Amino acid sequence: MNTPPLPSGSERTDGLSVRIGALVPLTRPGWVEAGRHLLAGLDLAVREVNDAGGIDGRPLELLVRDTAADPERAAAAVDELVGLGVAAVVGEYHSVVARAAAARADALGLPFLCSSAVLDALTEQPTDCVARLAPVQSRGWRIYADFLLGSGRRRIAVAAQPSVYWASGIRVLRDRLAPRGGTVIELDANALTPEALCGALVDHGATALLLLAGHPEPAVPIVKAVRGDRRLADILIGAPAGQPEFAAWAAALGEDGAGIPFLRYLPERLGPLGERVGKELRERLGEAPSFVAFEGWDAVAVLADVLRVYGTDRAAIAGAWPRVAVEGTRGPIRFSRTPGISVWQWAWPPVQVVDRDPAEADRFRILHTG
Questions:
Q1: Who contacts 321 (Cβ-Cβ below 8 Å, separation ≥6)?
Q2: In 10 A of CB 247, how many CB atoms?
Q3: Which of 261, 258, 240, 237 lies closest to 249 in space, CA to CA?
Q4: Quick check: 336 and 345 in contact, CB under 8 A?
C-alpha cells in the first residue's frame, strides 16, 4: 500500500520515512525565483517516488531549509539536518552557498548531491561525499566565450560585483579569449552608475558587455541604460549566469530584456521523460519550467535510485556515486572524476547559449551548443 505523499517541508515524527534535506534559496537576497523552480522539481520528484511505493515501502520525506543565499545559514542548516537524521542533502543554487554546504557536509560525512551550483572548486580538497549534476563553470563559460568569438565579439567588458563566483568566471573568459585575440575589461558594477558605465563602454570600444552582477539590482538598471544609449546600439549584452532565464527578467525589462544570451543546461530536444516532467512542472509553476527545475527533479531521481539499491547508510550512499546510472530528464546521468574537480561530477550535462527572441519574448532561441 502506498503512503500518501507529504507536502514539501512537512516533517514526520514516526521514524518510518526516509528523510533527505533540501537546501533552497527561498527569500531575499537569494535568487527566489530560481529557488521556487528548484523546489518545484525536488518536490515533484519526491511525490512521484512516493506514488511508486517510496524507498522499499517507506515514504521519502523532504526537509526543506531556506538558505537565503547565505553561506553561514546553509552550513548551519546542514548541521541541523544531520541532527534530524537525514540520509543525504540535495539542492542549492548559489555557488558560494553550495561551497559552504559542501564543506560542512564533507566534514560531517553527509552525502550532498548538488543540483545547480557550478563553481569548479566546490570543495577545497577531493571528497567522496559530494556529487554534482550541474556542469562546472569552466566548461560552461568556455562555451560562452566560444560563442562570443564566433559572433565576432573580442573586446569584452564585464560589469562585475565582488564575488568568488564572478571572479572565477572572469578568469575562465580571459583564459579562453586571450589566446584567440580577445580582451576582457573589468568594470566595477558597484562603483559606477549605469550612465558612467555606458561612458566607460564607449571609451574602451567594447563590443560586448557581460552582466556579472545581481538581479534585479544592478543588472536591470544597467540594461536599461545601455539600451537607451545610442552610442551603444551595436553592443551585445550578455548574461552567462542565466539571469534572463526567469520570467521576472522579462517582466522587469520587457523588450529590453530580449536578445541577451545566457547559459542554459538543457538539450536541444527533450526526450519522453523530459517532456512528461516538463509538462508536470509547468502545471505546478504556472509557467515554463527553467533548467533549474529539471535539475531539482533529476537530483531526487538519482538519490532515490541510490537509496533503493544501496540503502540509507550515509557511507554507502557516498560510496555509490561512481556506480550511478540513472535516466534523467536531460539524458543518462553518471558520475566520474573530472580532472581539476574535487567532487563526483556528471561530466557532460547539455549546455546551450540561448536568448529570448526579440520578436517573442517568451520564446527562447538556441544560439550555440557545446
A1: 111, 128, 131, 306, 335, 344
A2: 17
A3: 258
A4: yes
Phi, psi of 125 (to 5 degrees): -120, 155
314 with 88: CB under 8 angstroms?
A: yes
Cis check: omega of the bond before 216, within 30 degrees of 0: yes
φ, ψ for residue 170 (rounded to 5)?
A: -60, -40
Cα distance between residue 184 and residue 173, in whole Å:
8
pLDDT at 348: 87
Angle formed at CA 52 by CA 21 and CA 319, multiple of 5 degrees? 45
How high is the mean pLDDT of the chain?
Answer: 95
Q: Which residues of the chain have pLDDT under 70?
A: 1-15
The Cα–Cα gap between 166 and 255 comes to 26
Measured distance CA(24)–CA(37) in Å, rounded: 10
- Which cell numbers in the block locate residue 264? 542554459
Nearest to 353 by CA among 269, 242, 262: 262
Question: CA angle 99-314-121, nearest 5°?
Answer: 20
Cα separation, 326 vs 300, in Å, equals 11
Residue labelled with grid coordinates 502545471: 283
Q: Which residue is it, cell 521576472?
A: 248
d(CA 226, CA 249): 16
Taken as a whole, the chain contains a residue count of: 370
